[in-house]
Description:
By secondary structure, the chain is of the alpha+beta class. It has one domain: Glutaredoxin (3-Layer(aba) Sandwich), CATH 3.40.30.10. The chain contains five helices and six strands. It has a four-stranded mixed β-sheet, with helices on both faces. The chain has a two-stranded antiparallel ribbon with strand order 1-2. Strand 5 (141-144) and strand 6 (150-154) form a beta hairpin. Helix 2 (55-69) runs parallel beside helix 5.
Amino acid sequence: VGGLFLLQTQLIKPRKPKDFYSFEARDAKGRTVSLEKYRGKASLVVNVASHCQHTEANYKSLQELHRELGTSHFNVLAFPCGQFGDTELGLSRDIEAFAKSTYGVTFPFFSKIRILGSEADPAFRFLTDSVQKIPKWNFWKFLVNPEGKVIRFWKTDEPMASIRQEVTALVREIIIKKRGEL
């Protein structure tokens, strides 16, 4: 009887995702994307907004980082969020188009999500649960390692120079590890 109860609880109990890359998200066009496609790379996951005092500086520095480190070992993953003031009012595809045309960004954009409260996107909730911190504004950044674990986060106003240094170090580790596997 005890074994049957254990089996039953295992079948009923929802499986907790083991890492960030085990989630799915919708891209800016509404298509389902498995985040598994980013496994093996470093990812800087950011809650972005188009109309915020931090937009220009962040989009420019994130694009520069994305361009410098390339997509073989690294990606910036942008998740628009409109929960902080009226900083993100548009539709997902319009948000992506604005960022591309205004700031020349080439990194992946996902659908506009909620990151706070009971309706928070599950992938983003995984990030905040991992660091036990809830974003207070736009442009919080979460560094996810190739295995999908959150290894660091930064608040909105943290200098991009320190973020760049840590992201570059992680990408360097990934490259060295891959060379060692050859």
